[in-house]
Structure formats: structure tokens, C-alpha cells
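User: Okay, second chain of the day. Same drill as before: sequence in, C-alpha cells out.
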Amino acid sequence: MGKHQNNEGVIPVWKRYALTISEASAYYHIGENKLWIIADEHPESDFIIMNGNRVLIKRHKFEQYLDHATVV
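Assistant: Same drill. C-alpha cells below.
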């Protein structure tokens, strides 16, 4: 496609249901290592989805978690 790439079908990060660790890191300004630690400490929480060995973070549920967190 070269210089004129078609962005059709690309969902913006702020509209996605789930984010990868790297997307969540950029979106929330939280380091990837810290997000990995949070995911490891909360494996059964409602904001984590496991897709094989890939961790996905449910954006809306994680925002609720952050709303109640006093320290990240």
C-alpha cells in the first residue's frame, strides 16, 4: 500500500474493548512492566482476558479498577 495506506477497519484505541499490554501502556501512561505485574497479581480479575499466553486488558473494567486504586 505504500505511502497511501488505507486505515479502513482500524478501531481507535479509545473505542476498543480490550487492549494489549503495549497499547494499554501507551493509553494509560503506565509502564509495560507495571502492567505485567498488575496482570500477574490479578489473574482472576474481571479486567484481564487471557488469549492463549497473550494478556488483554478490558479497557472499561480496567478504568474502573484505576478509579478505585490509590497507588498503581
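The first strand starts at residue 18 and ends at 20.

User: Thanks, on to the next one.
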